[in-house]
Amino acid sequence: MTDATSRAVDASPALTPDERAELDRLRIEVAARRERPPRRIVWRSIAAGVILTLGCLLMPIALLTVWVHNQVADTDRFVATTSPLIREPSVRAAVTDRVTTTVFDYVDVPALTSETLQALRAQGVRPAVVDRLEGLAGPLESSLRGFVHDQVAGIVASPQVAELWERSLRSASEQMNAVLSGQSQAVVVADGQVRLDLAPFINETKQQLVQSGFTVANRIPDVHPTIAITDATTLERTQGAYSLLDKAATWLPWIALALLALGVYVARRHRRALLGAGLGVALAMLTVAAALLVVRGALVNAVPPRATVAAGDSYDLIVRFLRDGLRLLFVVSLVVALGAFLTGPSATAVGIRRGASKAIGWLRGGGARAGLRTGPVGPWVHAHLTALRFGLIGVAVLVFVFLNRPSGLTVLVIALILVFALGVLQFLDQPRPADDGRKPAAPA
């Protein structure tokens, strides 16, 4: 903005207080750029770029680590992820087909039919009757298979099976966590071997024997014999990986956030660095989402055609919490990037802010014509405008942080409410008549 343009704008009586405040802010930025010394410290930009890149790359790794840790170490999350599988129609159909096939692998209907016909012949049944019965062997096997399939489908779809499925998953997760964390009382490590404590089995056997009338079993003391089940090296490695996963899930997210904050701080232009960090994290989330689609396609193509639907549904259920996390970080990073862009000095951002100021000024003028006055609130807001803006942003951040498992939609709602609140604040911002930059009218 040249000096002549500045004087012409100053002479224009059409500027509203909001437009004049925006003009003053732009003047300060232009003056700061003119007084800024030439670029001599290039290493700050390079260091900021490297740090921000590391933070953006580490963010999806941290998200994946937290997701895996929750599936392995958090029993409630593991059950919440896997228990709905048995309620999926495609999964139920696949389980029903597999169980029915297994039943008929051990129940040879043709062989049983042949033995029955031979027994009838041996008992003197007329050959014509036996021949007619033999002709019904094929339809009988088909009908029997259909009957068994329907019965298995009813059992799989029953609430009892769903409850049993959930209890089994919870018990398996708890036992696995106890073993991997070294807190299991049933699995111990001794002499380089993993040994299973047989005390629970002995106690259960003791109770069953007593209930059956063999009361002498009450004399069995509380003993803890063990048997070797595997070498201790594998378990120790698994426990080490489990411990490493627990530490990584705790610290990696904070390290990634610290790198992003450090990169923005080191950068010469903080707003531009914040914009780049937001876009970088959003791009990383999109990359992980695309990788999940590729893995899903490979998984579906690797199974038989009859199990394709079940495999796809199972995969979608298992990774749904990971996708929720991807959406959340994607929306948060876009909101941060958009905020950094709209507060910047670009022509587009300035135009958007100017348009918003004009709209708010028009609403304020309409309210004034309708007799709406802010009284002492307007000057107070004008005097504390910056602090109030940062306060609203801080409240929005705190609401997001203390929400239990927020979603991407939640972030959008919080952002929209924040924008509305900032607009109301701008609407209430009315300087005192002596502070609006105009000279008081001369007395008549």
UniProtKB/TrEMBL annotation:
Regions crossing the membrane: 41-68, 251-267, 274-295, 328-352, 383-403, 409-428
Keyword Zinc-finger found: no
Keywords: Membrane, Transmembrane, Transmembrane helix
Protein name in UniProt: Integral membrane protein
UniProt source species: Prauserella flavalba
Organism lineage: Bacteria, Bacillati, Actinomycetota, Actinomycetes, Pseudonocardiales
